[in-house]
TrEMBL record:
It comes from the Bacteria. Keywords: DNA-binding, Repressor. Residues 24-43 bind DNA. Transmembrane segments: none annotated. Pfam families: TetR_N. This is TetR/AcrR family transcriptional regulator. Residues 1-61 form the HTH tetR-type domain. The keyword Repressor applies.
Amino acid sequence: MEKRQLIMDKSMELFAEQGFRNTSVQQITDYCGISKGAFYLSFKTKNELIMALIDSLMEKMTLEADRAVKTASDKDLLYAFYYQIFHSFRKHSVFGKLIVSEHMQSINEELVSKIYYYQNLLDKLILTIIERLYGNKIEKTKYDLMYCVKSFLGMYTELFISNNELPDVELDLDLLARSLVEKTNILAKHAFTPFVSHELFQIYKNPTIGDMTQQQIITLMEENMEKMEDSIEKDSLILLKQHLIEPKFSPAIVKGLIENIRHHPNCKLIVYLLENRGDFYSAYRY
């Protein structure tokens, strides 16, 4: 077994038994039968090891859920998704509880980044399921339904985390999955008032979206231009793209161009991104 993987597997056992804080690097190396030097060749710190374990766990859960969805028929699609997610939660519930009770108290930027990265992957998977199952019938409410599905996952995950203290209670995954399929179908069929639009979803799905690179914004502009018919809004978007590449308009002109596209359904995210670029209005050539 590769030394890095050996450290991860063995440390997981120790962390589950003793917790993060009460497990030292020395204990890990003794348990693995390696030197401290060998440990530090793989991980700079214990915290880096913990982050690697969290990353590995989230990746496994994401891939397992994705695999379950891809191999399921439409009839069993939602069931397979819910069952696999909660099966993974139950399998890793001890480590999940550790993350919540100990490591989240010292949350850092890297952990936040990883959490949002995997949340975005989960969002994409849930949307794929929703679109595959319900098609255009829920086009206006699909983002609301996605958040409802995520809420189900979060609420019922609490049962698995607290269940560590109740070892004799065996939660019925089949019943849970069938119950959530029923609830999801009811929402899909009888919820008609949308709250989360495509634009709002794009803004909130990534807390660092305001830091998108210039090229990413340009690509977004070009994608939206293709969807737009010839109009003042499209012409304004073309001029704003040119200004982003080579600033040449005064702030007054830029503001006018942005106002032209502000209320266009394809341009709300672009307006948000441009207005959050501190130099966009002022960086132009006289």
